[in-house]
Every structure is written in C-alpha cells, then in structure tokens.
Amino acid sequence: MALLVEKTTSGREYKVKDMSQADFGRLEIELAEVEMPGLMSCRTEFGPSQPFKGAKITGSLHMTIQTAVLIETLAALGAEVRWCSCNIFSTQDHAAAAIARDSAAVFAWKGETLQEYWWCTERALDWGPGGGPDLIVDDGGDATLLIHEGFKAEEEYEKTGKVPDPNSTDNAEFQIVLTIIRDGLKSDPKKYTRMKERLVGVSEETTTGVKRLYQMQANGTLLFPAINVNDSVTKSKFDNLYGCRHSLPDGLMRATDVMIAGKVGVVAGYGDVGKGCAAALKQAGARVIVTEIDPICALQALMEGLQVLTLEDVVSEADIFVTTTGNKDIIMVDHMRKMKNNAIVCNIGHFDNEIDMHGLETYPGVKRITIKPQTDRWVFPDTNSGIIVLAEGRLMNLGCATGHPSFVMSCSFTNQVIAQLELWNERKTGKYEKKVYVLPKHLDEKVAALHLGKLGAKLTKLSKDQADYISIPVEGPYKPPHYRY
Amino acid sequence: MALLVEKTTSGREYKVKDMSQADFGRLEIELAEVEMPGLMSCRTEFGPSQPFKGAKITGSLHMTIQTAVLIETLAALGAEVRWCSCNIFSTQDHAAAAIARDSAAVFAWKGETLQEYWWCTERALDWGPGGGPDLIVDDGGDATLLIHEGFKAEEEYEKTGKVPDPNSTDNAEFQIVLTIIRDGLKSDPKKYTRMKERLVGVSEETTTGVKRLYQMQANGTLLFPAINVNDSVTKSKFDNLYGCRHSLPDGLMRATDVMIAGKVGVVAGYGDVGKGCAAALKQAGARVIVTEIDPICALQALMEGLQVLTLEDVVSEADIFVTTTGNKDIIMVDHMRKMKNNAIVCNIGHFDNEIDMHGLETYPGVKRITIKPQTDRWVFPDTNSGIIVLAEGRLMNLGCATGHPSFVMSCSFTNQVIAQLELWNERKTGKYEKKVYVLPKHLDEKVAALHLGKLGAKLTKLSKDQADYISIPVEGPYKPPHYRY
Amino acid sequence: MALLVEKTTSGREYKVKDMSQADFGRLEIELAEVEMPGLMSCRTEFGPSQPFKGAKITGSLHMTIQTAVLIETLAALGAEVRWCSCNIFSTQDHAAAAIARDSAAVFAWKGETLQEYWWCTERALDWGPGGGPDLIVDDGGDATLLIHEGFKAEEEYEKTGKVPDPNSTDNAEFQIVLTIIRDGLKSDPKKYTRMKERLVGVSEETTTGVKRLYQMQANGTLLFPAINVNDSVTKSKFDNLYGCRHSLPDGLMRATDVMIAGKVGVVAGYGDVGKGCAAALKQAGARVIVTEIDPICALQALMEGLQVLTLEDVVSEADIFVTTTGNKDIIMVDHMRKMKNNAIVCNIGHFDNEIDMHGLETYPGVKRITIKPQTDRWVFPDTNSGIIVLAEGRLMNLGCATGHPSFVMSCSFTNQVIAQLELWNERKTGKYEKKVYVLPKHLDEKVAALHLGKLGAKLTKLSKDQADYISIPVEGPYKPPHYRY
Amino acid sequence: MALLVEKTTSGREYKVKDMSQADFGRLEIELAEVEMPGLMSCRTEFGPSQPFKGAKITGSLHMTIQTAVLIETLAALGAEVRWCSCNIFSTQDHAAAAIARDSAAVFAWKGETLQEYWWCTERALDWGPGGGPDLIVDDGGDATLLIHEGFKAEEEYEKTGKVPDPNSTDNAEFQIVLTIIRDGLKSDPKKYTRMKERLVGVSEETTTGVKRLYQMQANGTLLFPAINVNDSVTKSKFDNLYGCRHSLPDGLMRATDVMIAGKVGVVAGYGDVGKGCAAALKQAGARVIVTEIDPICALQALMEGLQVLTLEDVVSEADIFVTTTGNKDIIMVDHMRKMKNNAIVCNIGHFDNEIDMHGLETYPGVKRITIKPQTDRWVFPDTNSGIIVLAEGRLMNLGCATGHPSFVMSCSFTNQVIAQLELWNERKTGKYEKKVYVLPKHLDEKVAALHLGKLGAKLTKLSKDQADYISIPVEGPYKPPHYRY
C-alpha cells in the first residue's frame, strides 16, 4: 500500500477518488443546502461571530453531500477541518471532491479497503506539527477508538517497551488498527498522548458509538468529554427512524430493482432503525416479520400488525432480510444456506458484523458473482441457489444508495454543530468532565424548531396561563427529560 | 341529594345504577379475561400466595369491564377493594353491577352529577371504623387530591379552627370538593390525617395525574409514596397510543355515525394520545391537521404527512376537532362559533377543561339539543349553525364508547398490579419515600412479555456472547433507562 | 303470529317497534341530511317539479337513518312510499318510527323473525285496492323475488290449480315465502300478476341482488325493467368499499369491544367489500389474511402486503373471521370447531348463508350464550372452547352497528333516486325493456360531483383544447365505459 | 446525423451504446427472470411447440432489463425479433447490449435525440428484403403511428405525387416523422403499404397508445387488428398502479435524493398511475394534493384522505409536482415561475407534453443547470429561484430510475406474449378484424394465476355447488366483463 496524500493549489491535503467530480459535487451541495435549514440557520446565527476561530476539528463520518454541508457549516463558523469517512462504502466521491477542493482536508473514497480506511482515519487525525485536533465529530466511534487504543499502546510502550501485537486478535480489522499503532509508535511514541491531552471533546452520533462511550465511561477509561448526539430526540427519533424509512427502499431499489410489494421482508430488530425499515417495507406492500429480543419492542411491532417470529421460523420463506440490531451474528451462513433463491440479505446497522460475511466467504465451494459494485450474488454449491448480499454486509443505504436524505440529516448535523459549539465554548470552564453528556432539551427543541418553517408548519403558542397550568415555561422546554416522544 | 348506600346480602356496600345488569356484566368480564393475559398471569403467579392479604385498596378509576378484571385480580391476590369511577360518564353500569354483586364495594354509575361523583369518591375512601385504605389505585389523581385537600383543611382547622370556604374558588367542581371536606370536618376532624398516616402509597396511571404528583413532590407536599405507572413504557406508549387509536373512532362512530373518510380532522396535541388519534383519523381516510406547541412533536407530525397549523388557521374548515393536550382552554367558545355546521368537537384528554364548555353553555342565546346521551348539538343564535359536542367535553372514548379495549388495558393494569404489589411488599422496608417512582425496566419488560403469547409472537433469545457484546444481561433489561422506544 | 298493522292519525299504515322514538329518529335524520349532499341536491333540483307525482314506490332496504333521508327525498319529489327492511336486524327503530310518523308507511323493526320479515315485505308491497307499486327500490332483491315467485305460482295455479308446497324445499326461509304466496293465492289469485303488469321497474343496489337480476334476464324470466345501481361506480366502488371500511370495525367494536391491533384477521373474499374490510383491519393494526378464488383479486391482495391462504391453513390461528364473498358455505361448523377460544366470526355479505349457522345451531351439545343482542358465544362441548358469532351470521355492520355512514350512502342513494326518476320518466317511451341496465356514465359522474363540495374539493376544468386532445367532451363523461377506476 | 448500423459476428444488426456492458446486462437479466414467473411459464408451456416459428416481431418498447426477458421469451417461442425503445431516455444500455449480443436486433440507447429515436424506430421496422414485420409489440403507439403515417403518405404520393411537408406542423417531433417518411418515399414508395398488408396485428400496452387505436378504429383508419393489452386487469390495475407506486419514489430518490417525508406533493390526475403515485408519496410521509377533472376519481382521492384542489391553488406551496394525466399542457411555464425554489417537477405519463418544456426552454433569460443527466435545475431570471425538472419532462421513472420492477412487468408482458400468440395463431381464421380487442377474462385470470406461486399464495377452490350458486364455472372466469376490481 503506497497511498500518497495530494495537495490543492492552496496547499491543503487530500486523497479522494476523482477531483474532476468537484463541480458535480458542488451542484448537489447547493441543492442540499436548501434542504438543510438547521445547518443554514447555524451559519446565519453564528457565522458572524466565528465561534470556532482557532478550532481544529477532525471528523470521521460518512463523506456524503449532507456531510459536506456540515463540514462547510463548521468552516463557516471559523473551524479548520480534516475529514474521513466512517465506512468503506459510504463516501460519495463527488462530495469528497468538492470539499477537498473548496473547504477541508478530505481522505475518503467509495470502496476503500480496510487498510485504506484506517489510513484515511489516521490522516484525518494528523494535524501535523502544530498539533490537533481540538474536537472530534464521530460516527461509530472509530476516530475515538483509534486515539484510545493509541494512547493505551503508548502508555504500555512507555512502561514496558512492548508494542501492540496484531496477532493478539483474530478480528481482521482490529489487526489493522494495531498494526497502524505499532508502526507509528517508533517514530512518535507520544502522538496519541498529545492528542488526548489537547482534545476538548468528541460528539458522537450513532447508537453503536454511544454504547462504546458509555462503556468507557463505566470503565473509567474515557479520555475526554463526549456529547451523545445520538440520544437527542431530533437525532435518534428522526434520522434513525425517518432516515431509514427513506433510505432502505432507496438502497434496495438501486441495488436490485426488486419489487417490494408482495414480498416477505424480515427486519431483525425493532428499535428506531428497525421501525423505520419495517414501516418502509410495509408501506411498499411487503408483508413484514420482525425478530426481536426485547418484549416491549416486540409488542410495539405487533400493535402495528407485524408478525414477530424468530429468524429460524421464517428463513426459508422470506424474500428480503434486513439487520438493524447493532448486535453481531444475526444472520449466519447457515441461515443463508436455507434461504430462497435470490433472497436479498442486507444490513443497515452501523457495523458489518450483523451478517456473517466471514462464514459466507469461507463457505466451501461458494461462488461470488458481482452483479455490480455492492451487489453480489453468492451461490451455494449444494443447492445451486443464490442469495444477493448488498454492500458486502455493510450499511446498505450508504453502500448502495446515498444514505439518509438531506432534510433529516440536517436535524442530526445541527445537533452535531451545537454539540461542537458547546464543547468548544465551555472548554475552559470545566463544565464537561470525562463523561458522556446529552444536549439539554431546549437545544433539542431548537433543532426541531429550525426545521419547521421549511415544511410550512405553524406552532401554537402557549399562553402564560396555560404554561402555568402545566408548570412549564412559555418558551419551553415543553417536556420532562424522560419523555419518550 | 340523598344518596343511599345499599348493601349486598353479604353486607358489602355499593351504589350502582342497576343490579340486574350484573349477569350481563359477568359475561363481558369473562370475555375480557381472555383478552387480558397480563392480569390473568398475575392471578396465576401471585394468587396462591395471597400477597395482598390484609390490604385495603381504594380505586378511583373508570369503572369499566376492563377495570372489573383489574379489581378481581386485586381481590384474587387477597385484597379487599372499594371503588369509584374517575369520570362522571365512564362507568359501564353492567360492569359496576357485576363487581358490586360479586367482588368489591362499588360506587359508580354512568352519568353522575359532579356532586354524586365526589360523593362516590368519598365513599370509596371510607373504610369505616377499621380504617383504610392502605393503598390507592388512582387515575387522574382525584382520590389523591381529596386526601391532600382534606388533610390540608384538617391541619388548618386544628391550628386556626377555620373551615374551607367553597366560595374561595370559582371552579365549580372544586367548590364541591371543599364543601365535602368542610361538611366532614365537624363530625371527624382527623379523617384524612388518619388516612394519610396509614397510606402505604398510590399508583397513578395518567399523564395528568402524574403531573400533579410531580408538582406535589416538587413542593414537598406529597403525603405518601407514589408510583408513576403512566411512564411505564407498557402504559403510556401502549394504552395512550394504541388505546386511543382504537377508541377515538369508536367513540366518534357510536356518538355520531359520521363518515370519517374525506373529512378534515384537527388533533390538538401530538403526544402519545394525539399520535394515536391522528393515526386513527388518517387511517380512516380523513385529512389530519395537528396543532402543537412543542417543535419536536410538530416535526414528528410533519414526518407522518400531517399538516401542522394553529387552530385559528383551520377552525372554519375542519369537520372533527379532538383535544388531547392535557392543558386547558384549547377550544374556546369563540372558536366554536366559527366552525362549520355540525362540526364535531370532542376531548380525549383526562380533564374536561380542554374545551370551553362553560363559555359554550353561557353563550347568549345558545340552544342545546340532546341527540342522545353524551351527544349534544349546540346551535348558535347568530348563525343558526350548530356544533356537536361529545360527552359534554369529557373523555369521549369513555363517555360515548367503552374506552380502551381489554388487551391494551391489560398492559396498563398489569403495571398497576405490579406497582401495588411493590408498594405493599416494601411497606415496611422504607424503600419508598414520599416521592414519585417509576417501575424498574425489567418489570416493564415483564408486562410486555406477558402479552406476547396471546398474539402468537415468538421472541428471539440473545446468546451469552451477543449479550456480552452489547453489555446487557441475557435476560434483560434490554435498554438503557432513557431509551425512548 | 298475529301482526297487526297500525295507523297514524293521518291514516297511514305502519308497524314499528316504538313510536316514541320518532323524535330521536328525527334528530338523527336531520344530522344525516347534512352528510347527504347528493340527496339534498336532488330535493333542491327536482323537488319543485314533483316528478314522482302519482308514483307509488315500495322499498325493501335496510330501514336506517340514511334510508330515511332517501325515503323523504322520494317523498319530496312527489312519491308515495311504503317500506320494509331487507334484513331482520338492520332496522334502526328510531328511524323507522320517525318515518312512520312523518313520511311513509313503514313495516320494520330490529330483530324480526323470518316470518315477520316476509310479512313486512308483503305489507310494503300491498298498496290496497288502488294497486301498486309502480316502482321498487330493492336491496338484495327480496321484493323482486316475492313478486316473481308470486307470479309464477299464480300462473301455475291458473293453469293447473296447484298451489306452492312449502315442503318442496328445505330452505327454511324459502318455505316461508312459499307459505305466504300459497296463503294469499286463494283470496286473490291475481295479486302478483297485477303487480308485475303495473310495475315500471326496479332499481337494485347490491351485488347479490344484481346477480339474481342478470340470471333472470339470462333465463328470460325477468318481469319488468331493472336498473343495476350496484354497478354505478359511485355505488360499488364507494359504498361497498369505503362503507365497509368504516362499518366493519364499527360493528366489531360495538359487538365485542375487542382490540383489533395485534390480532390476525381473515377476510374471505377480496372484492369491493373484502377490500374495504381488509383495509380496515390492516389500518387498525391487525395482520390480515385473505382467502380468494379469483387469481386477479388474490394478486391485488398480495400487492397490498396481505397474505393469501385458504381458510383451512389459518382456521386455528386467526382471531377474527369476516365473510364477504356473496357465496355460500364459506365458514362451516367444522371450521368453527377448530378455531381459537373466542374467535370472532361474522359476515358482511348480503345473505346469511356464508356462515354455516345451521350446522352450528344443530351441532350436538353446542351451547349458545347470548352476551347481548346480536352477540352470541357458542361453546362446543368437546373443547369447552367458544366462538363469538355476530348478528347470527347476518350483515354484522347493520346488525351490530348502524351500517354505512350517511355520506357514502348518499352516493348510493342518489343513484337510486336517479334510477327511479329515469324509470319513471321513461315509463311510456319504451326505452327500458325487461332487461337489466346500468346508469349512463354522465349520471354516475354527476352523483360524484354532488358530493365534492361538502368535502371542500375543487375540480380542475379541461380546456377545449385539452378535451379535444383526449377526444372527450369538456363536460364529460371523462372515461370510457370499461374504465375500472 | 450519420448513424451506422453495426453487426454481431453472427450478422445480426444493432446499434447500442456500449457492447461491453452485455455481461452486466446478462447478469441482471438472469436476476429478472426469477422475478418474472409469468414470462418464464410461457417459455415452459409454449417453448417446446415453437408457436412463433416464422414470425417476425418488431417491438417499440422501453429497452430495459424486463423487456429483455420479454424479447427472449418471444425468441424462445420461435420468433425473430427487432427492437427499439419508445422513449429517448428509457433504454438501459446494459440490457440493450445483452440482447443485441445474444438474442435480437436492437436499436436503442439512453439519451437518444429525437432524430435518433425515429431512426431507431425505422430500423426496428425494417426487416430488409424478406419483408416484415408480422407482428408489432407497441408501447405508446409510435411504431403503429409511423406505419399509419407512412401508408397515408404513400397513398397520397401515389395519387397526387405530393410528399409530406414537415413544415406543415409546428410539432417538432412530428416534423421529424414527416421528414423520415418523405426521405424514404423516393427510394421505396410502397414500404409502409407492404408492411400494413403483411401485418397480422399489434398489441399495445399503454393508456395513451390504446386511446390512439380506439380513435383510429372510430375513424375507420386502423390498418390492422390490435389487441389492447393495457386494459387487461393484470396490466392497467397492476403495472400502472403498483408499478408507479414503486418507481415514482425510486425516480425521485435517484434523481434528487430529496426527503419525501414532510413535503407537499401534487399529483395531477388520479387514474391508475396517479393512484399509484399518490399512494407512494403519502406512504413516504408527504402530504398529497390531487388535481382532477373527473368527479369520480376526485371523490376516490378524498376517500383516501387526499386533498383535491386545482394546480393554481397550490402551485406556490408544493414541493413535488407529478403529472400522470395522459393529457397535455398540465404544468405550464407560468405555473413553474410561481413555484418554490427547488420545487421538483416531473412527469410519469407516457408523453412529454404534460409539462410545458417548450415554454420553459424559451422563457426569456431562463438558465439551465444540469446537475446530472436527467436532472436539471432551471433558474428564472426574475426571481433567481429555480425548479428541478426530471428527465426533461419525459417519463421520470424510466429516465431517472429503471422503470417498473420485474415482477409487475411480468404481468404486463405475459399479457403481451399471450396477445401476440393470439394474433399469430388466429392470423388465418379471420377472428380478428381491423379493430381493437381486449383479451378474454380467462386469459387475464391466467396471467394473475401465474404470478401467485412466487409470492407464496394459495387460492381457494370453489366447490361445484358454490360455483352453481353464483352461476360461474368452477375454473372461472370468476367475474363479469364489467367488473372493476
């Protein structure tokens, strides 16, 4: 692997697929801006005061058109930005090109190898001699993970001189992480230590990444403050739910053109993502079966007319399988062998371990026929019957389509901007310790409010008398913290 | 008013409309039992050990068929029970008769006056010389209110000899409460004091009642422990949402037979109740417009294709108006005057102050034409155009139909039983202080689990490995406390 | 049976349940008028010219509030009217009372025996010495049937002196028909002959009744012209579909209060009625399974995400069974024995032979427990498990609720009025032979147009240029005759 | 224009974009075959007897993957085939390449100019010296049009020596047609005459093309028999409805990535196509407004909760506009000027004259910004606000996505195969005159039946007794001809 960083005429580093797509990317960014009122409002409200002046922000988040609007919002508020994608298939190359040319250092392309992926992550975190980053925008927690693992290795190395051993794990991806850290240790044994000392904090936006943060908080190993953006209502109840309701069928259609009506769809997991997926399939005319471990979510599915069964019950009858659990080992190769010919198997959870790709790839005699990028038919030798796997088991909405649409990402990303501002503004006050925080409800409500006008909505105003009657301020927040929406 | 308590042959007190309906009530109770697996499971699991042995439970909760199954579950676990309804129109007289005859002391009938209502509440709280109640099952908090107001008056009376003055308020209903307390003070100036001292706690199941409890907790005036059953997921996200989705159209149809398809429906408030109502109207083919004060709920409505406007914007174009806010003064007489002829106005929130009935009743020249009980046409003199008001502005699903169906009430009431058990079992441990508590998540999940079998659902089991991967116990609870479902 | 005809002070005959309900009926009729713009427009447009002056109209059609508005529309246009219901459970007694008191001769009450039913039909057809009727409004074809059977018997009697033998059939209901005819033959052996000679025609509004008419046309036995109102688009695609979508859940709720969400519903037949029923159950949160004989309708069901199986496949797993086929022997007693405890079995097709009530009633040891009128639990001795049968297997939406709502019935009944006008106006032109006709499309479109304003709709106008481009008149009709909507 | 026909090694003619995509096309064809059970059944049932032996079939129908399966089915039954697309944007280049390489003479590529389009049509009709075609498969009627116009010109030329004058019309496309005919006249003045004499018939599958045929039948100018495949239930009620429900959002997403939820969508026309489009938008969370000229369709829209207004009422508030009328001049440039910035304007009706592209293109100062192929932003100079037009006003689902999915096209195309077989088998019997026919219902039902197994459906069988009761054969057809489904 000899990946070379390139530079723009202005000297900014980047590595993208094709710089000639920058104009196309710019046009789509301009369209997206109209759909992202929350981010554009941030530019209007905060742009003039340049609150991020001096801040170096590293982002590890799907390098899409919507993310481009986020990046340029951070830049418009004064930040310097370096970026990588958080998934090997999720980059939109025209978006990456436009940003690389115009606004920030980008290291991302669609179809990275895992080694390239971690190289990109490392590049995004490397601010050179001046040091940095000050802030991290994370999605899934890989940037955060690399720093934590790097710092751990540096501590160990300082104490014992030992370097990480990639062979200590059989997780192929983690081997790469350890290799990168090991290789860097000799040239600079304090790189991650300096980073964690400088870091003001991270804002993280996925269920999966947040879970990692809470575990680190529980273990006492969290190295810097974190804001859990995922659990803003305007994130998890919007992007996860309505975003997936939009992008699951989009991915299915672009990848396979299959008619959804009349089919049997199985949705593994009925959390926010699963609810969006099940709704999408049902609305498109499929019959939907849900698998769940949680009796409450299962009962919700039943109340919507969905059947709740186990994967084993339905594996040989269903046409479309979607994993949304955030857990591992959901669809195993033994399940896949029992499926109907050309059953579609895909994942819309953050990580790719929901589907047993390893089991599939190593199944004796299995044959992989690539229909087109991110759409593979795998044929089992015994049955001569095939299944269609999308995006190699990774996030199918980003791998096979363009991810969530701009409007809902504007909600998520406005939370990110607000979280980043909060961390940066409070960097000297000690307000945030090495813990995980959620944004206060009035900011959550503000994010929503910024998105109403675009849709022509008019809010009702509480009278003082009414507000007193239900004991809330006229201007909100309108709900107690535990309210579930 | 000369209401006389009657007695069964066994000597149990009651006051119901028509004891001859007891057989009919019993038949419907038997049907309901089949639909209420949670309650029936409680009987199976806890019945043999008679955990409520010695407990005197007063309930103030719509005296319906479903409540009958709750009451007989409490009785089956060993409790002695006295009951009143928490709404003047919500009693089902055959249910009341069956319970009065067979199981508990009941004071309730459909169409009580407000004075009768509070008389019933007082009766349900009056356990005679032996004292009681030990526990309260509350809905809307009226039983709790009476004790708190009673105790306050007794304190004042002891200190200063002053009795409450009904004329100190112009709330007609509160005047009645004060009158009752005043009249009782002389004969027994320590009645409520003894009550509050004996009381182990209350479990409360509505948004509205819970709000009152939190306010008392905040003010430091809460007199005994309270369990907020409303905020169990299996209560507020089920009964409020799916219950109303069922019972709103039921009430509309029974009261007016109006075709919902093609109509314009306005739902004031898009909380759980509002979500259920809006879904019901939309599914029935109405065009739905939501009014909201909370931008987050407003944005949720928009994502479902509902329009969000103010009442003023649509008052003269809509056909059906439903209030679900839990706030007061939502639809005022000035709104009603501008409505289309025969627009339907109804409330499904707990209290009847969402609709300005007082303004309507006192509007000069207004004419009330009772189509049938709980369905009135009010004609304005200036336009000669009328509106149809359901259940006199009170809970229309209970006033005009039979409330939520058994299955979803089984979820709510199983929470009630579990909460009552928890309070009673811990009565001597000091676990519960004079605060408001919610049930722990594993009990919430248990309630859901008890309802899956009836619907033919099969849960997936986590492997130990998977459970460890997402850091939860194999047996749950499966979600963090803040999870929103 | 000694049924006595009563008379109003004005001398008009009637037989209803309770004349004291007339005021209540009047109030509901007034509400319904606001919801029936088509009929009210007919009064405005045609009332002044009294086109039905001299016409005697007999109707055999569910004596509901909506029908009351139809009757009074016919009367407002100059007709004299006699009426009976076409189903033993479908009369609304307050509607019957109001009409009997104010507008027409009515013979109908809720809960007739079959003998009473046919007595009523005979009364409605008996215009006394002056003769009549001139026109028939029919629903299901029972009035038409009686005349055809009567005439057949009279022919036979004249030729051979033979009278009909009720024992020649084992259809219990048809025995009654033959008895009535036989008993009348002696006193007046030309009654039906005179009737058929005078009759200008019939307009029939159900799929079932229309099928009978086409069979008679095919056999050459049709005695007078018939207009098939059922196949007006504004009838079968509205009343059958949207009416049942409304009234199926209404009937289920009123009869059983059962929660529909989460249940498995089986809809036998996926025609217009079945489509409405399946949509209603699905929207309410049930999982719906369709049974069909017709592959096209089956494929439609699949495209809506419904499962298509046979009754045998699902009989022991479903919770709610609805027959909509217009065929007989759909749910047999052997099916019912295999159902879950308290499974609900009901029919919304015109005749009661879709459910094997005879098999159920005569099943050895079966026990019938009447929960309330039209809601029976039948318990099988072997399993001690019961099923709930609605309206004794007859039209459950009329037996257990109030039938279709006014607005959609306004469409159907405006077609009836127009058909009656057409028959009457052309009575001397020979335009209509002894055949079955449908209304021309421009009248069908007119019916629809009369209902748009009430719902706030605005039509787009074709330009002349556009109309020419698609070769239709600017004013319509807009579609070719075979268009399916 | 110098378009050159190319030849495969086997000597078959073609002109496609890129032969190297043939392998990719083949893979997708294989996937589609699994989704097209109707066509595959035809191969199984009829393939062995080679019924099309000797038949030369020309098709003018979107050259997609699904059409490829149709073409290869015709070939598998013995036909020789030449093909062109019936829309300049609808060809899928990989499908065209695979067919050109493997199965038939193809003249089609995505993004033809209008001149190229008609060149392709001419090529597809030109079977060389041996003559042909024998049969035409048409979509929109352009192949049929060319023959009819060509024959008309040849008649005129023979009589008067006059050649067509392209300047006699100002329809730009028709000028091209006339030019082609004129240019061919001299070299071969009997080409179309020979064609029409040889032609056995055409099967046509769109509403638009069928309308043309009925007009020609009415005028007496139809030159050969035609089967109207569009009005098979399994065509117009499936492909038009469920196909568009699938492919409208697909096209919107691929072209713009816009979030549909929360938006206001306007659907012009509520026929089968409009119903599918409106359903799709509503299900995706948009608020949908319908414009209609036909009161019946308008009332249907209202019953589904859709608002019915005129375009003028909503032009400045809506976000997405879709034309489905089959009429012209629906959205004019003056409408477009009033739209919101970035409103999306698209057409899913057959022809591109629903949207006033000419008015837009020639609007003074208007600026066209091509975001990507088939997605253009048009900016008006006065407002500096832009609208987004998809596929240059042509069929957006084929221009921006891949058209209808395979399963539903299998229904449509099985009708085509059956129609072609019928025409060919009866070519000598005189069964078909120069008129327009629809397929008999039993064939329509057969098409449906062939598609049930794939979706796991099981039909119920009528008993003889039941069949007799409703007077239909046990094996169907199950419905009268006028039945509307």
Automatic annotation (TrEMBL), chains A, B, C, D:
Show the stretches that span the lipid bilayer. Answer: none
Residue ranges annotated for the S-adenosyl-L-homocysteine hydrolase NAD binding domain, each copy included? 240-403
Instruction: Tell me the route in metabolism or biology where this protein functions.
Output: Amino-acid biosynthesis; L-homocysteine biosynthesis; L-homocysteine from S-adenosyl-L-homocysteine: step 1/1
**Free-text comment on the cofactor:** Binds 1 NAD(+) per subunit.
Single GO MF annotation:
adenosylhomocysteinase activity
Q: Which positions are annotated as binding substrate? A: T64, D139, E205, K235, D239
The record's listing under SMART domains reads: AdoHcyase, AdoHcyase_NAD
Instruction: Using the UniProt record, name the top-level EC class of this enzyme in a single word.
Output: hydrolase
Q: Which InterPro entries match?
A: Adenosylhomocyst_ase-like_sf, Adenosylhomocysteinase-like, Ado_hCys_hydrolase_NAD-bd, NAD(P)-bd_dom_sf, S-Ado-L-homoCys_hydrolase_CS
Q: Which GO terms describe its cellular component?
A: cytosol
Enzyme Commission number(s): 3.13.2.1
Please describe what this protein does: Adenosylhomocysteine is a competitive inhibitor of S-adenosyl-L-methionine-dependent methyl transferase reactions; therefore adenosylhomocysteinase may play a key role in the control of methylations via regulation of the intracellular concentration of adenosylhomocysteine.
How is this protein named in the record?
Adenosylhomocysteinase
